[in-house]
Structure formats: structure tokens, C-alpha cells
């Protein structure tokens, strides 16, 4: 068998389907959100397993981590509310994946679905995650809620953005790319914009990285300077040696010539 629909779960995970990695085939099982409720085009959110973190599921927004399920314990993720759903983790030399089963008291058709806004809902459309990840981009004033990224948060600022943001498909938000520039201002033309803030620990780490790079550059320049000075000193010494040998040869030739002349005259 070369292909089966269970390998591509789209935005919905059914009992027995997998979220993880097929190590033998190199295939990844993940959920992909729709662009909007009405548009099945590929959305901005994916849910799957980080190959480096095998005890939880991860939610990505355009490739960046925006939240996790928390650790799996006794069939439950500690950050998700999925009553009646029993998750399990399986690992062998061919695959690593999460799957789930449901208890007998689940009467509706069981499913886990990722919404266009990054939220996860069950068969009754009840939220599994505590809130929509997308809320932080739409102007929510709650910073660093449970569903938001553990690596970043957003703060409210007044100003203007260079260039036009994306407002397609009536998502309710205007989003700018990383290349855009935010200009803080409080005049009449400014607007409230939520700007991504770096985590202080990450900023501190970047400071250390900058220091290491600066030290490496300084060391490289010092090595180049020492090598240049050594080369010039060797050239100078070599020229002195050449002049000394030339002088010795000249003296030798002069003395030898005088001796030959003296012997000839005698």
C-alpha cells in the first residue's frame, strides 16, 4: 500500500488515527487547520508532535510554536480538557505517535478538530484548549494566557506599520510580516496594534550570543594582526641577512682579488 487517507488527517483526528512520525518512511502525521470556517485552503495552524519533545503535542502558527498540550499523564494532557478521550503515546523503531480512544459514555461521533483560529474542539464542538490561540492576534488584552506561546507574548502599542497587512478571508485580524516596521506614535493617525514581545530570557540569551560573536571577531582580528607583524618581521630579518651575506661576499671577493694581484706581481 502506497497511500491511505489516515496518513493525511486534514483538520480532524478520529480514534485510532496518529499524530507523530513514521521513522521508516519519513512521513509526519499532523492536523492542518482550514484558512477560515468556510475555506478549506491550508490555514496557519498545525498540530503535531515535535520530534525532540515526545511527551506532548505542539501547536504551531506559521511554523512557530504557539502552545502545547502539556505533559501526557494517565491518558490526559494536563493543559487540555478532553473528558472521555484517552490519549496514548506509542514508540518503536519504525514510528512514534500519539493516538486516542474514547470511553463508552461518548455517544456522539468522536473527533478532535483544529479550528481555523488554532482552537481544538471535540465531537460536541466544546473547546479542548482553554482558549483560541488566535485571540492574541485580534486585540485581546490578556498577555501570556495558557494557550499563548511559552516563548513570546504581545503588548499593546499605538503607532503605525510600514506597508499593508494581510486581511484576507475575513479573519478579523490584520497581520504584518516580520519585514514590516512598527513606528510608535501617539498622534491622531496612530492606531492600537499588538506587537510581539521577546521573552526576557531569550533577549538575555541573544545578548550573550552577541558578546560571544564580538569576542570571536576580536580574536580573529588579533590573530590576523599578529600573523601580519610576524610576516613583516621575517621579511625584514631576511633582507638584513641578505645584505650581510652580500657584504661578506663583497669583502671576500675584494680580499681574494688583492691576494691574486699581489701573487702576480711577485
From TrEMBL:
Name assigned to this protein = Bulb-type lectin domain-containing protein
Q: Which residues form the signal peptide?
A: none
Q: Which UniProt keywords apply?
A: Disulfide bond, Glycoprotein, Membrane, Signal, Transmembrane, Transmembrane helix
Please give the start and end residues of each transmembrane region: 207-233
Where the record annotates domain Bulb-type lectin, the positions are: 1-34
Pfam families this protein is in?
B_lectin
- Kindly give the InterPro entries that the UniProt entry links to this protein: Bulb-type_lectin_dom, Bulb-type_lectin_dom_sf
